[in-house]
Amino acid sequence: MFSAFSESSGRNEGLRRSKWTPGSRAMSGVPGYKSTRHPQYSTSVQASSSSKHTVHDVFIPNSSPLPIHSTITMAFPLPISLKSSLDATTVEYAQLGTSGLRVSVPILGAMLLGSSAWEKYVLDEDESLEVLKAAYDRGINTWDTANAYSNGASEEVIGKALKKYEIPREKVVILTKIWGHVAEEPGVVSFMWGAQMDQSKDYVNQAGEYYAPLSFPPASMEAVNAS
Fold first, then answer.
1. Do 100 and 125 fall within a single domain?
2. 82 occurs within a structural domain
3. Does residue 180 form part of some domain?
4. CA 119, chain centre distance (Å)
5. Do residues 145 and 122 make contact, with C-beta atoms less than 8 angstroms apart?
6. Average pLDDT of 179-204?
7. Domain count of the chain?
8. Catalytic sites, residue numbers
9. Would the pLDDT of 56 be above 70?
């Protein structure tokens, strides 16, 4: 715990100097210090061979958007657990619009996960679980699905992945959509029959409005099915 803190102007223009001293003992003038430089910031870390205490002189650009305490922590070795997490993360994260939510880049599309009874190109449950686990392990923690994908099986397999692999719910961002009908038969692709389903006692009021007949599956999907 750092209990003493002082800030003064640095000698170099555009820098401010911040000195952190652990404990209540003043470290200036104690002999035996060694200085090292941090590669990212103009940071001097002084350690005395005759003391367990350390003084950290950190020169931070005035234009830096980071608060002082955030920048100073860069001078210390990363915790082992955090380093392990960073090493396993192979993607980047981007802010979603003007919100505070950050999503992985890329986002995993779960239209291909669920049940091959819906479409031949869709992976069944066991393979879908493997894909979700592999994505999560690499940092792809944003998954996009919809109620109509595999008539609900896509959403269900995501829930099963969280349970099977003990993935904390707060560590993933799940995007879903509720516009399409969810057919009661696994092999029915509701996008093709929206207008008719709106006239059915079993599906009325269960989806958004279909403004025009949809051509589904598109030619690209038909090509995949034929391969």
1. yes
2. no
3. yes
4. 29
5. no
6. 90
7. 2
8. 149
9. no
